[in-house]
Amino acid sequence: MAVQRELPATMAAPGVPSHQVIAFAVMTTFFVVAPFFIYPIFLMNALCFALFALAFNLLIGYAGLLSFGHAAFLGTAGYVSAHAAKVWGLPPELAILAGTIAAGLLGLIFGLLAIRRQGIYFAMITLAFAQMVYFFALQTKFTGGEDGIQSVPRGVMLGVLDLRGTMTLYSVVLVIFLAAFLFIYRIIHSPFGQVLKAIRDNEPRAISLGYRADHYKLLAFVLSATLAGLAGGTKAIVFQLASLTDVHWSMSGEVVLMTLLGGLGTIFGPVVGAFVVVALQNYLAQLGAWVTVVQGAIFVLCVLTFRRGIVGELGRILKRPL
Amino acid sequence: MFQLIGVAPQALFSQVLVGLINGAFYAILSLGLAVIFGLLNIINFAHGALYMLGAFVAYFLLQGLGLGYWSALIVAPLVVGLFGMLLERTMLRQLRQIDHLYGLLLTFGLALVIQGVFQNEFGSSGLPYAVPPALVGGQNLGFMFLPNYRAWVIVISLAVCLSTWWAIERTKLGSYLRAATENPTIVQAFGINVPRMITLTYGFGVALAAFAGVLAAPIYQVRPLMGADLIIVVFAVVVIGGMGSIMGSILTGFGLGVIEGLTKVFYPEASNTVIFVIMTIVLLIKPAGLFGRVQ
User: Which of these, A101, A115, B80, B114, is most buried using a 10 Å CB contact count?
Assistant: First the structure.
């Protein structure tokens, strides 16, 4: 009988494990309740970065590709969305869409070139490409150079949701975040996601099984870039600003930190990591450059002693992947 | 006054000179990266911070001990090299057995810590460091004015680069090193202390960065973020040259410096991006870089 009772649980593995459903429910409840206790602007900032980190983690955690240039996608989408909303006068949903598509196209171009190399080479090539985007943003007129694009109108979403109301804006950001989260969850658990993991773990074997590894990696790269763009576009509308900070290479480092701290290759890790990092920056802001030192120290600590990250360690203790 | 392809020769030659100077720094830094990458298989993201550290140590030696440029040129690389060996012993060594990407992440964190500490102490502005008295002034070559110090930087960095190449490619010690990159276990079995060699190699690569820092101090001032901006360009140089190739990093370093300088003359808008554009083209044609071996 014992066997009988246990079997369905293991057989049910292809479905959504119950502990992940619980974790998702906890997360969603937290975000629904949080704005009544925590400053909503801070929360929205954290949500945008959490989405960015989720997109990044899709690539490193599931395809094993460390991109050190993801700021390019966040920043480019920010500029395009801000421009679309301010200069073209597009409604926010179309502005964000424009930014997302722009990031996806950029991801396609970078991906085509970058996936030709692996490991450290891949990291450095993405970093160098992102630097190209940075200089482009610094020099062209449409990005506003050092000033960025300021006072971007938030507008009215879908013709009914006036985003000038903080709570309306928060709800929209939360819906975007949750939708993207579920989308990423779906990707990871699809056959496509399984092939990605196979390629991550043993690329030659996956190729010998007949999978065209480069196609899978490219698609993962484009998806990750597109979702990072969604984060960047949303962020530009929320903060009414697109600036050089988001395309600078230190932003690429920050998203690595968020993901590493939360847990590489975990589903909830990037969200936790993003919250911790954004909170650190928020509360240590008066300390100036010490924030950098603290971030660097966390990096070192994570790599040396804590490679699973917060959620990874938690999952290990609970013996359940989170 | 004749014109050369529509550009005044003074402007052209002075930009070529600036390019050669930048190229000298690219070459020394990417050489250090290549040496470290060869044996440790780590992209030393802290390289820019250690370059900055070299410049600061030179500054401290002058302010605190009254030691001038010439002694700093020897002492600063030694100090920073020892610091590097300490980092290797205490931290990098623990990552030997796992994915090399963690080495990149660790050194990235170290770079943030080192740069952050100096930014807190000294802000973001530069501290002046005087050109040594023996190298003040310059030569009038007729077609342009060549400052002595800049000529010295080009000559000494070429000398350092070439002797490093000679040491690695033509000496017995170098052959041990190259053998250890191929198969550390067998080299160890021949009675060579590979872990010690790794520590010394890291120290040497780091010392090269610090040496470049001292050379840079009189030209670019001593700034906490002087390495942060440079290192990304050096990474691009490394990708173009092909990782781990000693001669490749020297040639690409100088070559790209000059190309960058020429771009400043003919199409200034692209001068910041030209290296990255070249990188893209090279990757399209030769994914392993100009001098790199296919993995």
Answer: B80
DSSP state of A242: B
Q: What pLDDT is attached to residue A288?
A: 77
Whether residue A128 and residue B113 make contact (CB cut-off 8 A), yes or no, is: no
* CA distance to A20, A131, A266, per residue, from A311 (Å): 12, 31, 7
What is the token pair recorded at A36? 């009544």
Closest CA to A271 of A16, A24, A4, A73: A24
Using the Cβ of B105 and the Cβ atoms of chain A, whether some distance falls under 8 Å is answered with: yes
Angle between helices A213-239 and A40-63 in degrees, nearest 10: 170
Sign (positive or negative) of CA dihedral A23, A29, A31, A37: negative
CB contact, 8 Å: B238 with chain A?
A: yes
Mutate which: A255, A300, A301, A306, vs B, most B CBs within 10 A: A300
Rounded-to-integer distance, Cα B268 and Cα B250, Å: 25
Which range has the worst mean pLDDT, B45-49, B95-99, B190-194? B95-99
Q: Which residues make Cβ contacts (< 8 Å) with residue A195, sequence separation at least 6?
A: A206, A211, A216
C-beta separation of B240 from B65 below 8 A? no
Contacts of A108 (CB under 8 A, 6+ apart): A218, A222, A225
Range with the poorest average pLDDT among A21-25, B108-112, B229-233: B229-233
Q: What is the DSSP string of A275-318?
A: HHHHHHHHHSGGGTTHHHHHHHHHHHHHHHH-TTHHHHHHHHHH
Please say whether the beta carbons of A312 and A260 come within 8 A: no
Q: What is the mean pLDDT of chain B?
A: 89
Average pLDDT (B170-194) is 88
* pLDDT at residue number B243: 80
In sequence order, what are the beta bridge partners of A242?
Answer: A149
Helices B101-122 and A249-262, axial angle in degrees (round to 10): 120
Tokens, residue A308:
């699973």
Residue A28 has pLDDT above 90, yes or no: yes
Q: Specify the pTM.
A: 0.90
- ipTM of this predicted structure: 0.87
CB contact under 8 A, B109 and A303: yes
